[in-house]
Design goal:
globular; 191 residues; five-stranded antiparallel beta sheet; 0% helix; mainly beta
């Protein structure tokens, strides 16, 4: 699968952020060069990034408010393989959600593995990437990656492929360039 912040493609399925308010997500199927709308979800939050893998899709909404500020949320959608119907499966927030975390700034999914980045940058935090894994019934937060450097914009872009997770640190100034961190899962499925 491949994606950018506003379009995601996996096989014959296309997912697009649409609408003037950037709160509408549309799903299309492609067959014989014909695009057919299969689902439209209108949301009351701004969608920042989307990703899709097979019958699972994720929507990052980092500006979504909670009682603690703009904590952010990720919505997981699943497609019924027999009917082709998409529906919201779960709403994810990190176990340590804090004020203005902006969880969901970046998202990437492959099969049963989901990586969610943040966009926080303050005197206390340097950004994070959260790893979730789907078990038989739900998504479980499995790990939290933090920036190994003492600077921050870690998690503004994330990607997962197989047993490899890539997280960017977009920090840059006159003497520093951004960085990319590559993580691989070991046989125990720990990052």
């Amino acid at each position: 699968s491949s994606c950018n912040p506003r379009v995601a493609v996996d096989g014959d399925t296309v997912m697009v952020v649409a609408g003037d308010d950037e709160g509408t997500v549309e799903f299309y199927s492609i067959s014989d060069d014909v695009y057919e709308t299969t689902a439209v979800f209108e949301r009351d939050y701004v969608v920042n990034q989307i990703a899709i893998s097979g019958n699972r899709a994720v929507i990052g909404a980092p500006e979504e408010n909670s009682p603690r500020g703009k904590t952010g949320t990720v919505y997981v959608y699943e497609r019924d393989s027999s009917t082709g119907t998409w529906s919201q499966f779960m709403r994810l927030v990190p176990g340590d959600a804090g004020n203005d975390l902006k969880f969901g700034y970046s998202v990437s999914i492959e099969d049963d593995l989901l990586v969610v980045g943040t966009s926080v940058r303050d005197s206390y935090s340097r950004g994070h990437a959260y790893i979730f894994r789907r078990n038989a019934v739900t998504w479980i937060q499995e790990a939290k990656l933090t920036n190994p450097l003492d600077r921050g914009l870690f998690g503004r872009a994330v990607s997962v492929k197989g047993d490899t997770i890539v997280v960017s640190d977009a920090s840059a100034n006159a003497n520093q360039y951004g960085s990319v961190f590559v993580y691989r899962f070991n046989s125990l499925s720990n990052a």
